[in-house]
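Shipment paperwork, digital attachment
Item: protein structure file
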Amino acid sequence: MLTESARLNDFPTLSGITYLNTAAESIPPRCTGEAIDAYWHDKLRGMKGRDGHFAQVEACREVSARMLHLPTSEVSFCSCSSEAYNLLASALQLGEADEVVVTDLDFPAGVTPWLRAAEAPTLRHWKAVGGVLNARDLGPLLNERTKLVQVSLVSFYNGHRIDWKPLRDSVRRLAPNAILSVDITQALGRVVLNCDGADILISSTHKWTLGIHGGCIIGIPAAAASRLTTHAGGWLHLQNAFDSDRFERAITKSGAASFSVGMPNFVSLYALNASLRYLERIGVANIAAHADPLVAEAEAGLLALGVKPLCRWDGSGILAFQHPRGPELHAALEHAGVHVMHSAGRIRIAVHGYNTREDIRHFLRVLATLLEKV
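Attachment content:
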């Protein structure tokens, strides 16, 4: 996908290391850093710099909308996925009579707002079997009281990529009052999206999108906007923030725009605008075509070593496995220049477009040597 010279020019810090941890933190391309510098130069202009700031926000909205296959009016930004989910809770205002379906493969940000609600709804758990979420197991959890179904398109935990159409169809058929929310943090920029019919899409910006911290993309199709308008305070998301009646009533913009409650984190959006355009120039389909065979090779190599992934690879950029000597393996891999994620014995690798076949083979060689010792 990238020539070796282009790879080293765009990602100079990848020289001499095997970086397989994009699902936690990406290595941004050089253009992302240049965008951060551009923010700084605009910031040095004081108030006049805001022209550049807000122009970057709109440019970032434009490219984000294309990546999400939505009109620009249906895309907005906040500071992180945790904020997005708390704003979603504000919009839905669920109570004890309501039910929320969450999965045991989801990230805490998509689950905990419902546990912390003043009047907590009933949480129903869609549990993975063999590391996989099957729509057949979802059906019995859905009913007319279901107000939200929260899933991740790709699980941060084991890389399982949800089968979208059966999920969507089950929710629409069995839970007619439900909002279908999907976290695409572990997918956007790495896999071709297939979330047609989702009511809200949420993505952090510092992983596969090759951006930095402090940003979150929100996509809300117009059909769901009236139900997904936050009740949060603030100013940027208000229609009458500076009108004469501003202390008498607060008129909120609808849908996605209501999630941008305050001053944007401009530097994050400068970076995201650059990184998404970089990915767009390459093409997410081309990234998948390059990186998917590398994940398949990694899976085959793990199985040959007697290491069973937590789920069979199904089209994401992530593989994970559990090992009783996980901390030792992780430390030894890092010592050998192989950067992976480790948590409670679980080791996770993530393969992006900037990875190479030699990255995978080096990882497997080092792992094979370590397994002989442990």
